[in-house]
Amino acid sequence: MTPKDKLLKIAGQFELAAPVVSIDALGDGFINDTFIVKTEGEAPDYILQRKNKTVFPDVPAMMDNIVRVTAHIKRRVEEAGGNPAREAMEVVPTHDGKYYYVDKNGEYWAVSVFIPDTIAYSRADSPELARKGGQGIGRFQSQLADFNEPLAETIKGFHNIRHRFKQWDEAVARDAVGRVKEVGREITWIEGRREEMLRFWEQVENGTLPTRVTHNDTKISNILFDKDGEVLCAIDLDTVMPSTSLNDFGDAIRSYTNTGREDERDLSRVGMSLDMFAAYTDGYLSERASQLTQAEIDNLAFSALYITYEQVLRFLMDYIDGDTYYKIAYPSHNLVRTHAQNALLLSMERQYDDMKRIVKETAARYI
To answer: What DSSP line would sit under 209-267, residue for residue?
Structure first.
């Protein structure tokens, strides 16, 4: 059986509205294998994905999360008089009513309806686009503010710094490839901020910062826009799970505001753009401010430092461990990433007072 025949057989396990005309690879995702499935006539086309069972060890639970969340968003869109066919993802069941199919090799597959006539951006290159991105994630969280169903934790300990410190301490003690002696200065970057980061996370553990439904992968490519540049919906919901809303905000700021590359060697190019921070914050709080607690608003700016610090730790930890998690292009790649992320973190720390001021003034406009 050819690869094409295998894909046709897999697609045939799902409740598609019409016969398949073609199946072609789509995008260059690092985690899942993604295909566009085109069908006959006026029937919708579909997205077929092989889910990465290494990254997501419980795919059935992950798909259950996605189905619950998308159904809730669809109801909210309908209540608001919107178009759920364009403003909400729709997961397609198999012929036996499941939302995933397991092939003979034990690989998991899922299908969703393709939303046509949309735009996806690979990066935010202007404050206006940053504002739209903030609006997209703010709307996603807002639509799920009254979601009260249980959700699985699809990646254990995700953004939990206490969990990360346990992994970190073990990696440093293990010193798998003898690199600890090379990175004493970098280790002090981690240790010098340990208590500050734990104090933030303790607010999640004791409920000061409430647990809500979060996306957990808030780069702008995970938001669909219409042809006029207006937000339609958030996509790629594999990492949807319970956490603090601030993780989504902080991760977006880390992504959107960096003036350099994530693996930039010239650290003079790396910094946080305050204009991009202000734009994203405005878009996010325009949708979300009235639903956040005062504690969440007070900690919003710090969440950017928290998530960026976590990434410094993870890059350095992987370098110490012998580059077992992140793909690298050269031997020092993870160390270069560590330095670039730390430069971004230092820039955020220098501008922290301005970040807090912007959050306070922006929230006041929308509450």
So the answer is: S--EEE-S---GGGEEE-TTS-EEEE---TT-EEE-HHHHHHHHHHHHSBSS-TT-S-G
